[in-house]
Amino acid sequence: MSEFRSKFLEVYSLLKSELLHDSAFEFTDDSRQWVDRMLDYNVPGGKLNRGLSVIDSYKLLKQGEELSDDEVFLASALGWCIEWLQAYFLVLDDIMDNSVTRRGQPCWFRVPKVGMVAINDGIMLRNHVLRIIKNHFREKPYYVDLLDLFNEVEFQTTSGQMIDLITTLEGEKDLSKYSLPLHHRIVQYKTGYYSFYLPVACALLMAGENLDNHNDVKNILIDMGIYFQVQDDYLDCFGHPDVIGKIGTDIEDFKCSWLVVKALELSDEEQKILLHENYGKADEDCVAKVKELYKALNLEGVFAEYESKSYEKLIKAIEVHPSDAVQAVLKSFLAKIYKRQK
Predict the structure, then answer these.
(1) Helices (DSSP H) in the chain: which residue ranges?
(2) Where are the domains of the chain?
(3) Domain 1-139 is found in CATH 2.160.20.10
(4) What does the mean pLDDT of the chain come to?
(5) Which fold, 141-341?
(6) CB 100 within 8 A of CB 106
(7) How confident is the model at residue 290 (pLDDT cuts 50, 70, 90)?
(8) Which residue in 206, 77, 51 sits closest to 136, CA to CA?
(9) Does the fold of domain 141-341 match that of domain 1-139?
(10) What does the record list as GO biological process (predicted)?
């Protein structure tokens, strides 16, 4: 739990107030109320891990120096930019996937009177990121680098989403397309950049670093993002719903999950046929057959081995980094996700 959580939440209220009184637009009472409600519904409801990671990473880069109020505020503002970006992705993602719930409540587009206005709300959330950066970082020497970073990461995430969507086009359920390189590519672009690299990159820019000098850090964080998604895929099937907070549906949804890719690798011909016949069907018996096959192939053991090897590989890569402060940032990220249960 970040020591800065309560401060972080205060900054949300302040940023929201600024956006609701943005001089570039003449708000009516109705439009201000709409945006106010839309923000509260979509932005602060998650675990806030990505946003809080900016402050935690920045503090580690400062190697124990006490952060000034201004530094905490700026790191929080960048953290919220990531949470805003995440909200933008999720609002539109839920429409594309025709999802029902998000974070334990109906998806925003399913709220009465919202519907497809949610598309415009998503675009507005994206624009808010630029407004926040302009309001608080325009005078900073790294302003252009920040804009460049957010634009780059948004492009990478959107491209990752595209690969994911066109791989599972309706009516074209073809398991033979699924492979480990495809899984890694989807994860790298759809999740890795904005969830793992972006918070650390924000902290590095605030600390006066040039991101071009930190490609090794980017690569380690992307590998961490892939490891994190493999855990997610594993927990979707083998995690307990009470612990992970949701009922996994990757099998029914025909997801390019690490488990199905591994199952295809390890199956004999008969098992492959069983997979092809039952994967991607919203039928309890079909799902049960796939899960039985996963157990028969000992995917729990295969995952345990993958997890320990990934951890060793990541630690080795981190420990060759010349900066102790950067090592501390990367190790703190890894500690948060290693052997997680949810």
Answers:
(1) 5-20, 29-42, 49-61, 69-97, 117-137, 143-167, 180-187, 198-206, 215-238, 241-244, 258-266, 269-278, 284-296, 299-319, 324-337
(2) 1-139, 141-341
(3) no
(4) 93
(5) Farnesyl Diphosphate Synthase (1.10.600)
(6) yes
(7) very high
(8) 77
(9) yes
(10) cholesterol biosynthetic process; farnesyl diphosphate biosynthetic process
